[in-house]
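Researcher: Please generate the 3D structure of the following complex. Treat every line as part of one assembly.
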Amino acid sequence: MALRYCWRDNLPDYIETLRRRLAELGCPIARMRRLVREAADHREDLKQAALAEGLAEVAAEVRADVQLGEPLALAENLMTTVRRSAWWGRHCIIGFGVLPWLAFPVLWLLLLVFELLLVVTPGCGWDAKKLHAAANDPASFHYFVMVFQFMDYIALALATLLFCWLARRAAVGLKWMVTACAICSLLTLITWGKIEPHSFFVGFTVNSHLHLQWIRGAIPLAVAGAVYVIERRTRQRFLEKIAV
Amino acid sequence: MKKTNPSFLNGVPELLVVRLLAGREMYGYQIVEEIRTRTGKALAFGEGCIYPYLHYLEAEKLVSSRRQEVDGRNRNYYKLTARGRKRLDELTAEWNRVTSGVALLLEGQPA
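Model: Done. Output below.
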């Protein structure tokens, strides 16, 4: 008998319960598709075996559900495996509570330098004369300071995004993602980068340019909010798509 | 996961799954059926439990999986990797060591 499991079909209650619980537990969508598909296939096999034994359709479905085990417990078990399959899932405290303190400033600096290279290289190459000329010209330097500011914000956002992506990938939940982003936010308040003609500085501080530091501090939080909203919308769209 | 899950009893399903996959590639339902049949129905557990194990084994690179369409259904087939074969040898040796130890104790005089 040829069967094709389709996401647009009405899902059996068991599978629907499993899928909803996986979604609630923050299972990544690609992984959820696979887990639910496997469970649905297995359930169908059990049902077919029961039908072959002469059971009625409803009785066969009930037996298949019993054999498959409690769907909520199964979802929890599957999520534990998803979390434990990644280092970040097994070591949440280190990964999202400790590591950002050390890794975020380094990441930010590397990204900033990389962005600087991307911006400077096409314009001036590595021609020292051109670089000095651009630095000595107040108009072009003023423009470059603004670009640098923008690059700083982008570097902060990208470094934060990395932790959000890791949290999402390891399915550790919102708590750890927000923890990492809050740490990133604190670090953005005390780190700084500055460009002057012929010089580039980075460092730690707790004073000066507070208005700019607050903008920097808000970036990781904004990234966390955006990731949360996008994730929520994607999940919602995914659920609606199935409900059709 | 190995360090946090060292209990020997917890390793039994892993041993069974790895042993079965050493023979040929299988999908979840097939594995459960094989376990049931080949253990004379002595071992029974919630069938859904097989998937957390399979996914754990896959994450540990002990098994690999591929999707294949069979009779209009897209199944995930699992097969043992080289690392999985090594693990099978380790688990088998551990099983033999424990069962022979337990057998010695059971066969001996009560203290």
